[in-house]
Amino acid sequence: MTVEFKTEEMVINMGPHHPSTHGVLRLIVTLDGEIIKKVEPVIGYLHRSIERLAQDRNYFQYLPVVDRVDYISIIAAEWPLVLAVEKIGGIEVPERAEYIRVITAELTRIMSHLFYLGTFLLDLGATTVIMYALREREKIIDLMEELTGQRMMFNYFRYGGVNADVPEGWLSKVDEFCDYFVKMIDEYEILINKNPIFLSRVENIGIIPKEMIVEYGACGPIMRASGIKYDVRRDDPYSIYDRFDFDIPVGRKGDTLDRYLVRMQEMRESVKIIKQAVKQIPSGPCLKKKLAFSFKIPAGEAYCQVEAPRGNMGVYLISNGTNIPARVKYRTPSYANMQILPEVLKGTFLSDIMAIFGSFDVILPEVDR
Amino acid sequence: MNNVIVEIYTNLINSLPFEPLKVILGTLIPVLGIVTLPLLTTFLLIWWERRLIAFVQARLGPNRLGPGGLFQSFADALKVLLKEDIVSKDADKILFSLAPVLVFVPGILVYSLMPVGHQMVVTNVNVAIFLFLSVASLTTIGILMAGWSSNNKYSLMGGIRAVAQAISYEIPLLLSIVGVILLTGSLSIVDIVEKQDVWNIFKQPLAFFIFFTCALSEVNRIPFDLPEAESELVSGYNTEYSGFKFALFFLAEYVNTFTLGALCSLLFFGGWRFPFDYLLGDIGMQLSNQLGIIWFFIKTMFFFSVVVWIRGTLPRVRTDQLMSFAWKYLLPLSLFNIFITAIITGFLSGAFSR
Hints:
Chain A is globular. Chain A is an alpha+beta fold. Chain A is built from 15 helices and 8 strands. The longest helix of chain A is centred in the first third of the chain and has 30 residues, at 95-124. Chain A has a 3-stranded antiparallel beta sheet. A 3-stranded antiparallel beta sheet of chain A has the order 6-7-8. Chain A has a two-stranded antiparallel sheet with strand order 4-5. In chain A, helix 4 (95-124) runs antiparallel to helix 11 and helix 6 packs antiparallel against helix 11. Chain B is globular. With 354 residues, chain B is an all-alpha fold. The longest helix of chain B has 38 residues, at 19-56. Helix content of chain B is 69%, strand content 0%. Chain B contains 15 helices and no strands. Chain B has helices spanning 4-14, 19-56, 72-82, 93-109, 128-136, 139-149, 153-184, 189-194, 200-203, 205-218, 230-233, 243-268, 282-290, 292-313, 319-349.
């Protein structure tokens, strides 16, 4: 005799205030027991109309606002805007400023990946790694504070260079940090990489095939983990990235483990780039010509993208010849990456939401802007 | 050669003038002991866990209040007690209030069966270990009750997970102890300790591994803290709880973890006995009998520290992995252990030579 149990699907509202939705994402999860039937992300809780704000401010006034697009890797949001304005306005950037930009951008990439590392493992239930990761992140923040005067919203880039030259001895401190940090990455990998529980949580979980990546326009480490060797720094070089020798780590399967490994490898590559930049940096000015507060750029359009820690961060800028941008559109990587989430989560376990979502390294302010 | 503490206590009771007073005080003092001592230890444990996990995580931990931050737990307890006791509108109010009690009481109750030193046990039942584990397993009902009555989906998931986990891990837990019982030939914890001239860990290493893993799961500690998985279920079954009721859950967790350590040291590491005391002859016996409570406490704290260490190192397992680990690996291993132990004890006792 078989007994039929009447079972119902359960709908859980994860978020907007949930410990592991990294900000204010709301996931409407339909569960059958512990298995996920459907996930519907609801975004927009953190919308600050950053793109609209551009139309009320001149270029200089707008620059601090874009720091708020991505509060984890601030430089990545500043850079494409600066690039776009420089492209339309034909503003030249001195060599030394380019090098400083690369160093700061790579430092913030490490910052962002460290934060990812900590929160990802926290989502998996390992509480210790975030402390180690934040310890190292703190060192970068200290360096950035010395350089920019800020610990978080650096507001360091300027149209045509950077705000100020590096303080004395700063470059050697960066170099020292790089040596120290490589050792720390080894330490993390000893702690994490061979942990059987960690591996069982991430291996073959949330596999994203190449085709899906292309269909959804996902980018960054997620794309590279699925085996697509594309990096804006190499394939659409901006600034002076073509002068550095670095690898683009790619994964094989595109599972959660690959996404973790790719990011760890990227930190090593960033260290490589920083070390080269510190060695090669020429002397000279950091800002060729100080622009007037409400400078004007000619009418025109430009799309500039950089490789942010989470993927292609692009700015589409339309200028109408005044000192105020006519339209600014941010193409943010997290927004593109988030689209895959419902597809990947289907059929996985409730606990896998955290593993997969954590591995996407989504920053909500960047999604909502 | 009696234990000093036991002697003082017996003299105290015997010096009382009236017979009824003797009975009443003779009951009340141990009861008071088993209620207050675990609670006081818990304060120490919370402090110790926080300091230790802070050490693991390269930070300081509480270090302001009292010597080394020792009074921090008291301050926290006071804070929790002063919090508003919120019962959500749609909760099943009776079950909601009953659940923390049901979680807390078995945790305290097992202390009456726990020998903490030579002759220092409140009730020496001859089926102590059996009673111990059956009382301890009652906690699960309380957790399910909390999960159900909160009328919160996270809590419900936590409650369901707790039950599934408890059922799966109870079986290998019990079966792993069977090996020890076979060696001892008694279910009394006092007997088990007294027969451990050579610690059981050397005779039953596999059983200890299984026991420790299952016990870790029973007390819902990382890596098996699925019922209260913070990053998944917010706080699991105790999401809706606040104030004193939450404090009871919190205390129960620490009391249970201490019990885990105590059982490990009693069953596998000679309980209150000094290491290899039988080799030291009379001095060894004196050390074990007089200072037993110290050795017991050190051993128990060691296992508690191991639990904290594990918490600092490992991530959380997933529900299905948790289940398959119990049923596919731990259960067959524990059966295998019983099988081997039975054959060897049979050989040694000459059962096969007849």
